[in-house]
């Protein structure tokens, strides 16, 4: 099976982290292709940045249409996910929905560990959109500025571990979700240090995408996720316009 992973941010260093973790997780017969947004921001913190990232993801995936069996939107918060699911007749999986699904199978209440305080409101909205607000124990985030988005784990190792422990002992989390592509692989580093399961969004997305492909459940031809109807459009990249034709 061929899976395309799109980083909705423009940071190649983050794409490297995503791809490395995806390769560690994927089955031997799964072929992974990594793509990075050609426009947008270094990392998504706000609703507007998510709007840009969602469009950038749709453009990147449209340019590679027909080359993949499954698609992963590799940014926590799943920018553009619902619309992209309408556009492609293959399984489309977001990091957030995949991590939440994994967490719900491992425990009752989960906490999210994030890289920025500004992200928290948007993440809460994402959890609520997935119908899981009642199972969210807390969101804890780094408060200091980031030196470099590609080195968040190295720069804030102790703080990330401390936040995870406090989420368990003070907030009652049964599961920890390390949120955001810059934290890809951190779950493995925290194993044995955190007394509850720790979930990674990238590895969850890869495995859930593989499962959906194996299920062969089909795609939506009717209902709310059916392909957008044909109508006049203007100014769209050629690859997107072709998919909508």
From TrEMBL:
GO terms for molecular function: amino-acid racemase activity. InterPro entries: Asp/Glu/hydantoin_racemase, Hydantoin_racemase-like, Iso_Racemase_Enz_sf. Pfam families: Asp_Glu_race (PF01177). Gene3D superfamilies: 3.40.50.12500. Belongs to the HyuE racemase family. This is Asp/Glu/hydantoin racemase. It comes from Cupriavidus pauculus. The lineage of its organism: Bacteria, Pseudomonadati, Pseudomonadota, Betaproteobacteria, Burkholderiales.
């Amino acid at each position: 099976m061929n899976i395309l992973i799109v980083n909705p941010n423009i940071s190649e260093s983050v794409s490297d982290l995503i791809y490395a973790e995806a390769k560690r997780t994927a089955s031997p017969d799964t072929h992974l292709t990594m793509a990075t947004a050609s426009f947008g921001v270094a990392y998504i913190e706000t609703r507007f940045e998510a709007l840009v990232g969602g469009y950038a993801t749709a453009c990147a995936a449209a340019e590679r249409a027909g080359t993949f069996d499954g698609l992963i939107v590799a940014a926590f918060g799943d920018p553009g996910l619902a619309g992209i699911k309408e556009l492609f007749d293959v399984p489309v999986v977001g990091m957030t929905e995949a991590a939440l699904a994994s967490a719900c199978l491992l425990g009752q209440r989960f906490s999210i560990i994030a890289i920025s305080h500004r992200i928290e409101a948007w993440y809460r909205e994402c959890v609520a959109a997935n119908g899981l607000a009642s199972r969210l124990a807390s969101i804890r985030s780094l408060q200091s500025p980031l030196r470099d988005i590609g080195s968040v784990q190295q720069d804030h190792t102790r703080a990330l571990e401390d936040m995870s422990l406090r989420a368990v002992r003070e907030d009652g989390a049964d599961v920890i979700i390390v949120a955001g592509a810059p934290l890809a692989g951190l779950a493995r580093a925290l194993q044995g240090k955190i007394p509850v399961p720790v979930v990674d969004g990238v590895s969850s997305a890869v495995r859930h995408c593989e499962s959906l492909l194996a299920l062969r459940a089909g795609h939506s031809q009717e209902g709310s996720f059916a392909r957008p109807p044909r109508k006049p459009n203007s100014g769209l990249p050629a690859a997107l316009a072709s998919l909508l034709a």
